[in-house]
Amino acid sequence: MSKKQKKMLIRIIIASLLMILLNVLKLPKAVSAAGYLVTYLVIGWDILRKAWKGVLNRRPFDECFLMAVATLGAIGLAVYERSGDYNEAVAVMLFYQIGEFFQSYAVGRSRRNITELMDIRPDYANIERDGALEQVDPDEVEIGTVIVVQPGEKVPIDGTVIEGSSTLNTSALTGESVPRECRAGDEIISGCINLTGVLKIRTTKEFGESTVSKILELVENASSRKSRSEEFISRFARVYTPAVVYSALALAILPPLVRLVAGMPADWNIWIYRALTFLVISCPCALVISIPLSFFAGIGGASHEGVLIKGSNYLETLSQVKTVVFDKTGTLTKGVFEVSGVHHSPLEDAELLELAALVECASSHPISRSLQRAHGKEIDRGRVADIEEISGEGVVGRVDGRPVAAGNDKLMKRLGIAWQDCRSVGTVIHIAVDGAYAGHIVISDLEKPNVKEAIRALRDAGIRRIIMLTGDAEKVASHVAADLGIDEYHAQLLPGDKVDLVERFLAEQSGREKLAFVGDGINDAPVLSRADIGIAMGALGSDAAIEAADIVLMDDDPMKIAKGIRISRKCIRIVYENIVFALAVKFGCLILGALGIANMWAAIFADVGVMVIAVLNAIRALRVKNL
Q1: In what helix (H) or strand (E) does residue 466 lie, and over which residues does it extend?
Q2: Is the pTM here over 0.85, yes or no?
Q3: Which residues of 313-345 are buried (b: 16+ CB within 10 A; e: fewer)?
């Protein structure tokens, strides 16, 4: 609890105790009036001050002004009638402050998730100079600098591990509690906490461009992007508040004047009391506070789960998504080529992989690297000679003096070697040794472990159409789409083709239905910008994709897409519940107050009670763990 909240709570307790004592003790009227005045000032002085500042700044029509006029008017009526009953005036201010306390507590709860995320901001970076570590500002570290991260420290800047191994706590970034392993050669992102070993990291970005800076910028700017619901409430309050003030003034003046003209008693005190009750009821606190709070809580809860939503408007749009379009590589698949099979070889699998890795050792192509990883041993380049790369076909060379060729069917045809087709899906590398066919190796971009569950989760979340776009061959795309249960796929696409298709899908949307595109590569940035909602894979995604996206998944887990949709729908459902409930109670009580049926105590419920209920309902948007 903050200092401000503690002070407010103390004032509420003191005012409550004073009210109880003043009602229990039989004091002279003058002493009792003085006691009520002290109690009123203890609980309400800050509201009176804010109301006065609003008048001085020519912006009087807010909830503080309504509370001040209504309670001071109630005190004035008690003095005029000499009733000595100041309970209503003090109770209105007391319960209003109780409602403000609940609202402050709710904001604190939702802000705590954001604060925990802000803890990823590093304070320093370690640079080794003359055998000693020197702490410097992360902003001063240039690209290519070697920094040292000790156990318990935050990784300050994105880079590549060049020495050491450790486990990393990534929970602040991804929401995942399981530590991740890292070793020399691994990419590492800022914001992680190093748990065990000492790491030396060569930075690949400046601090301002690193992952931690991007995340903090996204979260800090999220509240500036308002949803349509929030904008409606803001416009509503600007019109509604002065309207009810003038209505209350008319209620206090016009009926008594009409009664005087008709020859009846004016009953000024009755109509002024009704007008004051009308003012208390009319206070729009429940709407003005609970709606932005609901969105703030939803964004805070989602960020705690590793789903960064850049603004309330995107949260609202996400709730309306009915079509999800996926890029394939790096989104549905790992984006890393791996050997998935060795077929039709008279040699041992390990021997065939060794020959392929050796003859491909001079190439930096991803397929060549995957063969070298599958071999799993250090490459002895002294065993290889006469390497020649034939563009679009493969590689030929001599390994241990034996002619070896590795490539596609075009290469085999060029060499006049009969090859065998492969039924497996993936890139097929045919191998020939000593001029004879020696089998083939299948290399595939493997599906992410939980992508099938992610597709099912999207179906369960009410997504009606799931589409996959890829630049891969038709055969590969067809296999992946069928295996994952995707409705529709389009293969062999260029980046411009993806934009054209998304334009077509958008035109096919009906009503308020929205389309989300999920991608991770730099070539996905134009499509991410064009879709109603762009979702980027954050941990491995390119900077351009993250910048263009509206939502960033920090751990590249496609399961988080369905979770984000469920969070958004829960948040919007809470917003609509609060709007309907608050307006129904408000307008109902306003009519009853104008007719004299509702008194000041009913007004207290219509204002403070509705606000407390709406705020407590808004807090539910924070509870997203089990969605």
Answers
A1: strand 465-469
A2: no
A3: bbbbbbbbbbbbbbbbbbbbbbbebebbebeeb
Task: Check if the beta carbon of residue 129 is closer than 8 Å to that of residue 148.
Answer: no
- Residue entry with tokens 């008017």: 73
CATH of 338-447, one of 3.40.1110.10, 3.40.630.10, 3.10.350.10, 2.30.110.10: 3.40.1110.10
The dotted CATH code for 125-218 is 2.70.150.10
What distance in Å separates the CA atoms of residue 405 and residue 388, rounded to the nearest whole number? 10
- Annotated catalytic residue, options 158, 327, 524, 557: 327
Q: Which residues contact 394 (CB under 8 A, 6 or more apart)?
A: 405, 406, 407, 408, 410, 411, 429, 430
Q: Where are the beta strands (DSSP E) in 538-591?
A: 551-553
- pLDDT tens readout for residues 466-476: 999 987 768 77
* β-bridge partners, 444: 338
Band of residue 189 on the pLDDT scale cut at 50, 70, 90: confident
At position 360, the amino acid (one-letter code) is: E
Q: Give the C-alpha separation, 517 to 535, whole Å.
A: 6
> How far from the centroid of its chain's Cα atoms is residue 383's Cα?
53
Q: What share of the chain is helix, strand, coil (3-state, %, to 5)?
A: 55, 20, 25
Tokens of 384: 């290889």
Number of H helices, E strands in the chain: 21, 22
- Enumerate the β-bridge partners of residue 449: none
Q: How far is C-alpha 157 from the geometric centre of its chain's CA atoms?
A: 22
Helices (H), 136-283: 171-174, 211-222, 228-261, 268-282
Q: Give me 306's structure tokens.
A: 């590793």
Cβ partners under 8 Å of residue 58, min gap 6 = none
Q: How far apart are the first and last CA of the chain?
A: 27
Q: Where do the CATH 2.70.150.10 domains begin and end in the chain?
A: 125-218
How do residues 357-376 score in pLDDT, each as one tens digit?
Answer: 999 888 766 678 788 888 88
Residues of the chain with CATH 3.40.1110.10: 338-447
Whole-number Å distance between alpha carbons of 420 and 411: 13
CATH fold for domain 312-332+448-549: Rossmann fold (3.40.50)
327 counts as catalytic: yes
Domain with CATH 3.40.50.1000 in the chain: 312-332+448-549
At 83, list the tokens.
Answer: 């009733």
Per-residue tokens: 256: 């008594």
- 3-state DSSP assignment of residue 425: coil
